[in-house]
Amino acid sequence: MDPNTTPNTNQPTGNPAFQNTIPTGIKSSVAAGLLGIFLGAFGAHNWYLGENKKGVIHVALTGGGFLLIMLSAVMVALTAQVPFMGFFFGFLMFLSYIAIMGSGIWGFVEGIIILVQGDTALAAKGYTVAAPVAYAQPTTPAAPAAENTEDKVAEKETKADDKKSDK
Predict the structure, then answer these.
(1) What CA–CA distance (Å, rounded) separates 38 from 164?
(2) What pTM was computed for the model?
(3) Which of 27, 47, 102, 147: disulfide with 55, CB 3.0–4.6 Å?
């Protein structure tokens, strides 16, 4: 077994395909936020966080918008002689553009929110994050730990020996 890899304890141990794998359940707010900012229109941050329903909605809005824009552009060109049909498909093209832009803005805003809230918010939502998060701080200070008297005696003897050697 390679000492540089961490075994994944969530996978079956008898299957050699799962040996020496790194756990993938740890999520990062920085990664999710950047995915939301740059690929938010496609729901990349939602797919990363496992929110598949929201990811499907993003993909449907963006992909459906692109398809409707292409279809509308073709139909506007084909129906150039019929004024009402050109207007109808032009309006459909505009609505498709709004759907794409809305999905992109929605993803961008979610990415900013995820970045600002940080790993603490992800941990509060139930995600596993890399750093441990402390939610409640104690209201009274903790009592100091009892000091070991043997360590104090050894420390005093060491200081006394150092003073003797300096003279």
Answers:
(1) 67
(2) 0.63
(3) 47
